[in-house]
UniProtKB/TrEMBL annotation, chain A:
Superkingdom, taxonomy of origin: Bacteria
Protein's UniProt name: Asp23/Gls24 family envelope stress response protein
Automatic annotation (TrEMBL), chain B:
Basic and acidic residues biased stretches: 103-113
Gene3D superfamilies named in the record: 1.10.1740.10, Winged helix-like DNA-binding domain superfamily/Winged helix DNA-binding domain (1.10.10.10)
Record carries keyword Transcription regulation: yes
Annotated keywords: DNA-binding, Sigma factor, Transcription, Transcription regulation
Domain RNA polymerase sigma-70 region: 27-93
RNA polymerase sigma factor 70 region 4 type domain ranges (all copies): 123-175
Region (Disordered): 93-113
The protein's name: RNA polymerase sigma-70 factor (ECF subfamily)
CDD domains: Sigma70_r4
SUPFAM superfamilies reported in the protein's UniProt record: Sigma2 domain of RNA polymerase sigma factors, Sigma3 and sigma4 domains of RNA polymerase sigma factors
Family stated for the protein in its record: Belongs to the sigma-70 factor family. ECF subfamily.
Family matches, as Pfam families: Sigma70_r2, Sigma70_r4_2
């Protein structure tokens, strides 16, 4: 096969793309033309060792320990050092990292109610704690009911567990997800 | 949280963007094999591939807040590891042990004595891959070994789909010629 950098020359004389032919040979989806055309058959013969070499590749998986090494660094770095200051008698302050509060707020919302929370950001304002969350609804969910339930659960958590006033809880529904076992 | 594995990927990405390291761990579990494979096939050296995969995953954690569309996470991650692998390849000097190892493979695999061995064919492919210029090698790895489309590869390697097509064509031509003794 001649070495030619131009795109046109990726085509065999019959017009079939060599790349497409190789792809079909690998997937076992060779067309009627490719099976009978002499140009395609000659190219397929040229590709035979390459196909065999590609097939001889075993499953390559990540080395053991990679995940642990990555997560050790990730956990050591954390995402944000921002903290929420909680009310309470001193001496001393009680602070909770934003990422921990977000995780607890997400955990308040039971996916069984039809809502899965993704992003959950918080901000302490003079009016109280402002929560901004994104969520996916499971198909068939009545959205106003599900978001109202999520707001109640998050609001109760903010008031009862953090001892803070709720400023606002914004929920941005971004997608619909099919329920498992449903069409 | 074991239930993370059942969550849609975009939800995991958004949670990880907020600093949820458990969500990020689920993403690493899902993608570490492909990240390592891209690094290994580009670099041809297991130790370097492990380092590059680790660096890519940690870089992903650090840059995750900048990712705007959570659905593009896999392509974005492929881009990170591909670029790091290319940089590592370009940083090598010809006398580097990893390259020397590749050259050894190339010479050994070219001999007809190995013809009967499937491992010989497999090593011949590895050796031939090591002989490709880096831009061709990465395009071939992403197309033929990871099954990505021209558009996606073009975005990853910062070029046009036509240029990607040309590189894959040249890579395939080189590999077919290198494996000719096995025909």
């Amino acid at each position: 096969m001649a070495v030619d950098p131009s795109d046109d020359h990726d085509q065999l004389p019959c017009g079939t793309s060599a790349d497409a032919l190789l792809d079909h040979l690998r997937k076992g989806t060779v067309t009627g033309h490719e099976r009978t055309c002499p140009h395609c058959r000659a190219a397929a013969e040229e590709f035979r060792p390459l196909l065999a070499a590609l097939d001889s590749e075993g499953e390559i998986t990540a080395p053991p320990g990679l995940l642990d090494d990555v997560m050790r660094t990730v956990r050591a770095e954390g995402r944000s050092r921002q903290t929420l200051r909680l009310p309470g008698g001193g001496p001393g302050d009680t602070r909770v990292r934003h990422s921990a509060v977000s995780a607890m707020l997400r955990a308040c919302v039971d996916p069984a109610e039809g809502l899965i929370v993704g992003r959950c950001r918080i901000e302490q304002t003079p009016d109280g704690l402002v929560v901004a969350a994104t969520a996916r609804v499971l198909s068939g969910t009545v959205i106003p009911e599900a978001t109202a339930a999520a707001r109640r659960a998050m609001g109760a958590f903010v008031q009862n567990r953090l001892g803070l006033r709720v400023g606002r809880i914004d929920i941005d529904v971004t997608d619909v997800i099919e329920r498992h076992g449903r069409p | 949280m074991h239930t993370d594995t059942a969550l849609p990927e975009s939800v995991l990405v958004e949670r990880a963007q907020d600093g949820d390291d458990q969500a990020f761990e689920s993403l690493v579990r899902r993608h570490q094999d492909v990240v390592y494979r891209i690094a290994l096939r580009t670099l041809g050296n297991a130790a370097e591939a492990r380092d590059t995969a680790q660096e890519a995953l940690i870089t992903a954690w650090r840059r995750l807040p900048d990712l705007r569309d959570p659905h593009t996470f896999p392509a974005w991650l492929h881009r990170i590891v591909s670029r790091l692998a290319l940089n590592a390849l370009r940083a090598r000097r010809p006398e580097d042990p990893a390259e020397a190892e590749d050259s050894g493979l190339r010479e050994r695999s070219a001999g007809p004595d190995d013809r009967a061995l499937a491992t010989g064919l497999h090593e011949a492919l590895r050796g031939a891959l090591a002989g490709l210029p880096p831009p061709q090698r990465i395009c071939w790895v992403l197309r033929e070994l990871e099954g990505l489309g021209y558009e996606e590869i073009a975005e990853i390697v910062d070029t046009t789909p036509t240029a990607v097509r040309g590189r894959i064509h040249r890579a395939r031509t080189h590999l077919v010629e290198a494996l000719e003794p096995w025909r």
